[in-house]
Amino acid sequence: MAGGLLDREIAFLDALRTAGLTVSLAEVLDATRAMGAIDLLDREALRAAYAACVLKRPAHRTTFDMLFDLWFPAVTGDPTQIEADLAGDGEPGEGEPLEPEAYRDALRDLLLDGDEEAMRRFARQVVQGLGRADTAPGRQSWFSYRVLRQLSPETLMASLLGAMLQGQDRGGLAEKVARQTIQERIKQFQEMVEAEVRRRLAEDRGTEQISKTAVQPLAEQVDFLRASRNDMAELRRQVFPLARRLATRLTARRRLGKTGKLDFRRTVRASLATGGVPLVTHHKPHKPHKPELVVLCDVSGSVAGFAHFTLMLAYALREQFTKVRAFAFIDTCDEVTDYFTPGGDVADALARMSSEAKLVWFDGHSDYGHSIEKFAEDYPEAVGPRTSLLILGDARNNYRATGAQTLKQLVQRSRHAYWLNPEPSAYWGSGDSATGAYEGLIEMVEVRNAVQLEDFVQRILPQ
């Protein structure tokens, strides 16, 4: 393999690691061997070979494709010629940019036709014509929003629908299918424009720099407290696959540890038949333990996304515990277990919890002290010697009473007790944070994203 290609491969795989994908040395070697089995001039074959060697989760495909396009671009430099059919004048252009209206007319035809390769070429051309702007004297940059703002592909919907339906009745299945098709093609074109802008920025500023700044963190690495609506939607989709992975690992651990402790007396007795050499060991019967799980969640606005995601994960893991009970609070506490029924829709359960559960007692601001005391008073049987107690929240208590003594009693009654805090540990104890009152009573763990949450759940799964 040529040295330049090998260097680029190493840099690309390193960029994948930087973005959060796990790429082992064995996978690097597999990817290198795969280069000898494909046509290196076939870019899509190269993409498929790398994906087969290093990708493990479908959710990581977008990040992989974005970095692949940066490190192995389809073209380099500026396009110098506009296709005749896109120029609309019957002759190929000479690289001169068109007016925005001419670009819009060409885009309409392309969206109607659905030719992906033609759309990709067109994306390169419109970025060249509309996406460049002066950011400083003598310096230019590229912006996808300039292109999309001038073309406004969403405003072509009515015209495209009329052309696709061609006299068919509106409002029926045909319109629904046509509308969805148009939306998918518009989204595809927008992604092509953004990819072209990234390519040009990488040529101007360096691929390494752009790969670190243009690629968004993986959904499981996004902080719960900073997650957007789209990030939380992706995290919700990961809940049950995450629970299945954890359950699979737990099953493997149980299979490997199905024998109990060494039975010394039986082993020595059996060794008498072999001259005192213990060729065969005997073990006591393994006694699997499935504890109960009680989850107490702060669902106030500041940590609602974290609490909702963790409630869903706890519910998805219910088969690993004898019993799972969930409680939510803002300034008072209520049980929400019944909202999460087997086979039910998780989004509906969360909506019901928000509207029906009695979570506000006074002013709707977080009150950990009153909530903890209310939980202990109304549900005294919830925590016992078989219970793993999880408290979820940032401990931002609005300078109110902490209920620390009551929490201490709950921790002492439980088998295990943990506090999961979605704030960075550097912020604990600042402002109205009451972490100082709780840290000595219960193990407090920083859980800011899904990766940290998965690591923690593996710790507490029954052995």
How would you characterize the overall build of this protein?
- By secondary structure, the chain is an alpha/beta fold.
- The protein has 3 domains: 69 residues; 133 residues, no CATH class; 200 residues, von Willebrand factor, type A domain (Rossmann fold, 3-Layer(aba) Sandwich).
- 51% of the residues lie in helices and 11% in strands.
- The protein has a 6-stranded mixed sheet. A two-stranded antiparallel ribbon has the order 1-2.
- Helix 17 links the parallel strand 8 and strand 9.
- Helix 2 packs antiparallel against helix 3 and helix 6 packs antiparallel against helix 7.
- It is globular.
How would you briefly describe this protein structure?
The chain is of the alpha/beta class and 463 residues long.
Q: Give the distance, in angstroms, between the N- and C-terminal Cα atoms.
A: 48 Å
User: Tell me, what is the CATH class of the largest domain?
Assistant: Alpha Beta
Mean pLDDT: 82
Task: Let me know the number of strands.
Answer: 10
Largest sheet, strands/sense/barrel: 6 strands, mixed
Number of self-contained structural domains? 3
What is the overall number of helices?
Answer: 19
**CATH architecture heading of the largest domain:** 3-Layer(aba) Sandwich
Strand order of the largest sheet: 7-6-5-8-9-10
Strand content: 5-15%
Radius of gyration: 29 Å
Helix and strand pattern: HHHHHHHEEHHHHHEHEEHEEHHEHEHEH
Q: Helix fraction?
A: 40-55%
Q: CATH H-level name of the largest domain... which superfamily?
A: von Willebrand factor, type A domain
